Amino acid sequence: MTDTATIKWIEVAPLSEFEVDGGKAVIIEGKQIAVYYFQDRDEWYATDNECPHQKQQALSRGMIGSDGDEPKVACPFHKKSFSLKSGKCLSGEDYEINTYPVKVEGDLVYIGLD
Amino acid sequence: MSTKKKLIVVGNGMTGYKFCEKFIEKGLSKIYDITVFGEEPWAAYDRVHLTDYYTGTSVRDLKMAPREWYEENGIELRTSYKITSVDRDKKIAYNQHGDEFTYDTLVLSTGSDAFVPPIPGVDKKGVFVYRRIEDLDAIKEYVTNAKSAAVIGGGLLGLEAAKAVMDDGLKTSVVEFAPRLMPRQLDDDGSNMLKSELEKLDLDILLSKNTKSINGNGKVTAMEFADGSILETDMVVVSAGIRPRDELARECGLTVGERGGILVDETMRTSDPSIFAIGECALALGSIWGLVAPCYDMADVCANNLLGEEAKFEGADLSTKLKLIGIEVASFGDAFGVTEGAKPIVFHNIPNGIYKKIFISEDGKHLLGGILVGDAEDYNMLYQTYASKIKLPANPEGLIIKSDGGGFELSVLDLPDEAVICSCENVTKKSLIEAVDEFDFTQVGQLKKATKAGTGCGGCVPMLDDLLTAKLEASGKVVKKVICEHFDYTRQELFDLIKVEEIKTYPELLKKHGTGSGCEICKPLSASLLASIWNEHITKHSNIQDTNDKFLANIQKGGTYSVVPRIAGGEITPDKLIVIGQVAKKYDLYTKITGGQRIDLFGAKVEELPEIWKELIEAGFESGHAYGKSLRTVKSCVGSTWCRYGQQDSVSFALKVENRYKGLRSPHKLKGGVSGCIRECAEARGKDFGIIATDKGYNLLLCGNGGANPKHALLFATDLDEETCIKYLDRFLMFYIKTAAPLTRTAKWLDNLDGGIDYLKEVVIEDSLGICEQLDKDMEKLVDTYACEWKKVVEDPEMIKKFRPFVNSDATDDSIKFTPMREMKKPANW
């Protein structure tokens, strides 16, 4: 878990740049991060853009959805699903991705890094 | 240092895995540290469903449990480790590298090998067994160069192997030593019925054949039998039974049976009390047990004994039900009527290929066993009637002969509580009912997961279905096959809902009829339905599309996309060819001619796609829809305009057909072909629809495909003029789009259509359902509303914005790497 005291919030882009019920990639100091927005739940998530399976920068182009109550993304290459809350692979394999906190203030979206 | 005792399990097959499961369930991990050795490179997989692997299921899907299951439960799993010797005095096991592993208790679950009879020539190239993943890989590779195959062994597995190679297009013969098929399960009449049904499907059955030698110079070309006859064949698959793997037991001096198998007592202990043996390697109660249920039972008995509880293996019944090439076969209890005083009742319907025989007890009160061929629908109920000793009615013939109102109907709810529904996992009706009541299950999957019932051979799944349906119906609920956890509907129902309620977006559909936030199954399915019904621009639903539909291009290794402009019928002008060359050069794209007579440009970065398409569209190109589940190409040969053999102008007709259906969204991709004469240079018979010119017009062939399971299209109508041909195509395509399950090609759809091609003729030509007017209208609407998807994108700056790789920067994605290849480039390896 990230310790809230040390989070560095990075402003990434205005709300309107992001996709409703989908993902978009941002780049911060050379690192690619995928940002997802669920309109029905009004929830934001961020994870690594890289799918650990074949190391492709692709998760932002995957489809989002839910597995029970767990919000998830499915990689467009081989459909490995990951929880957007825990980063754990939901397709029965031991891959894991990093997750990052997201906050929206006014019209702007921020990602929290350590 | 752990103070626990050390337990070693040798063998990680189905039984070895089941033992691990029991070990955890019963809390044995408090007493033992457990290490499991498996000689195959992968963790235990489901060998019963090995044929599924042959037809495309992945090893991962066949796994009993993923590796992390072992880790989570503290089981040390070492694969590619073969234990080669055991020092029983020192209690040390050694692997192939000589590493030492000490144990307090050793469990052998080394399983079995295929039994290969010592026939001269059995070592030739082209002789295979049907046992492991590697065997199937080897067969799969060899069949590509073979035209015929012979399977030695007409038992369960032999017939399965025969089906697998036959489905790969080989002329297949089954060679059985005994005078009948499935000699352990069927009597002569049952075998004859099965034989004649299999022969109808072009499977050759040779009985009472003693193979004398396998001939050929280095590789198989023929088999020679003791009666002097010869069978020419390109390959041989041996499936003549199993041989217990007892070599490790022999090596360390344990007692083994005369004909093999590690001798065990009822507690599964071998002649050394610290060593147990379970599964197909064990000789228990004088037999080798080659079915899942008794092997699982042995794993359970062994685990209980390790716990210090008294448990005994009591043998098992060898009842079986299976479906062979669409023919149901079952055998249960005393199938041959050897019980004293057993009275047979026989039902023999030769024209329909049905044979049923049951034995009832002398007093007529109980069912003893029986055989079913051709129709085993009642197997589960008959089996339960036998196993639960249910008292028979006065007219027991009603058990197998159904007449209106006269049959003996037993509902699963009528069974006694202790009736074992799943014999592999030993799950009773009572525990299933309790699970349904406690967790309010509505789907069989949930019930299977919670109780493990139906996870072994899968034979009881229809009963689980019945039980759940009966329970739900009793409480006023309805059950059916649904799309995924988010929609309680079938695809067909969703199609109707969208159309009737005029639903235009996915969020609206989800809100009205679904739950949760959707997933990668229901989203693209809904997108395809919305597109098929309303023919609106596909990017309107971009967030419920696969990435290919989202970016209107095919994602490739490395995350770049490929671009395929439409080149209808494969006809292209020099000017257009030059434009493709110029664009490819400007954006440094790898170019390749596709199998569908067009040109694929690879290696475009996502932000380059709109610019590339802008240039292509200006030159008169349109989207080729290579990224969508939609019409790809209508391939053509040059036809009567140039070819001296051509009978019709196949190129002009192909252009007309391709332009009519371009952009059409369907359950799966669609391909067509038009050939100018019977020489069929356009390979139209390998397409969803094939049109072949005759001297009078065109023959129309439907529902073929290439790919993993090639199928030739079937002749649908002959000597049509162009107008009639298009009319039939309109109706056929629309009927397919409306009724096919998602991701079902036309060939598979036709396979599942009751009545097949003849039924399709009735619907399309004779309008037997009275829907043709509607089909014509629906297709006309789709044709009229076509628009090039890419044209719309390049004209709209808001849409172009979606193609930026990052929303917070104009940088390009520098993680994309290429390496040079033959004067062009390819993506760096992943």
Descriptors:
heterodimer, A: about 110 residues, mainly beta, Rieske Iron-sulfur Protein, four-stranded antiparallel beta sheet, globular, B: about 850 residues, alpha/beta, FAD/NAD(P)-binding domain, Sulfite Reductase Hemoprotein, domain 1, five-stranded parallel beta sheet, 26 helices, 39 strands, about 20% strand
List the helices and strands and how they pair.
The complex is a heterodimer of chains A (114) and B (830).
Chain A: E1 8-14, E2 22-28, E3 31-38, E4 43-48, E5 50-51, E6 56-57, E7 63-67, E8 70-74, E9 81-83, E10 99-100, E11 102-105, E12 108-113
Antiparallel strand pairs in A: 1-12, 2-3, 3-4, 4-10, 5-6, 7-8, 8-9, 11-12
Chain B: E1 5-10, H1 14-25, E2 32-38, H2 50-54, H3 59-62, H4 67-72, E3 76-79, E4 83-87, E5 92-95, E6 100-102, E7 105-108, E8 112-114, E9 127-129, H5 133-143, E10 148-152, H6 156-167, E11 171-175, H7 188-200, E12 204-206, E13 211-215, E14 222-225, E15 230-232, E16 235-238, E17 242-244, H8 247-251, E18 262-263, E19 275-277, E20 282-284, E21 287-288, H9 292-306, E22 320-324, E23 327-333, E24 343-349, E25 354-360, E26 367-373, H10 379-387, E27 420-422, E28 427-428, H11 429-439, H12 444-451, H13 461-474, H14 491-500, H15 506-513, H16 522-534, H17 547-550, E29 554-555, E30 561-563, H18 574-586, E31 590-593, E32 599-604, H19 609-618, E33 631-636, H20 650-661, E34 670-675, E35 689-693, E36 698-702, E37 714-720, H21 722-739, H22 746-752, H23 756-764, H24 772-784, H25 789-794, H26 797-801, E38 818-821, E39 824-827
Parallel strand pairs in B: 1-2, 1-7, 2-3, 7-19, 9-16, 10-11, 10-16, 11-12, 18-20, 33-34, 34-35
Antiparallel strand pairs in B: 4-5, 5-6, 8-17, 13-14, 14-15, 20-21, 22-23, 23-26, 24-25, 25-26, 27-28, 29-30, 30-32, 31-32, 35-36, 36-37, 38-39
Helix pairs in contact in B: 1-9, 14-16, 21-24
